[in-house]
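We close this part of the discussion by returning to an individual protein. Part of our work consisted of pairing the sequence of a single chain with a tokenised description of its backbone. No coordinates are needed to read the tokens, only the vocabulary itself. The amino acid sequence and the backbone structure tokens for this protein are reproduced below:
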Amino acid sequence: MTKLIKALVASGVISQGTADQIMAEYNASDVDDATQAIMDAEPDEFLAEAIIEMEDKSLAERRRIGKSKAIRANLQSTLCRQNKDGFAARKWSQVAWALKNQR
């Protein structure tokens, strides 16, 4: 994308200001896609990915991964509460608790 924009500016088809605006909008869409992926996340998929990541690790490593994933799940729970989705917030809280308190 960047090479195409630079080629268009070099050939005089578009101005540098227009190119900057196009690149800003293009980069903003990446952020929007990342944000949407977080909004669409499901607790069971998240937990399954965490289980796969923790497989064949030592106990200390599993706890470290679990605690970092629990922080993310807790943030997801907060996001659901702000969107007034209590059911999803409880599911995310349960995932966070399970990851944080591994035995």
Summary: The radius of gyration is 21 Å. The chain has two domains: 2-38, 42-100.
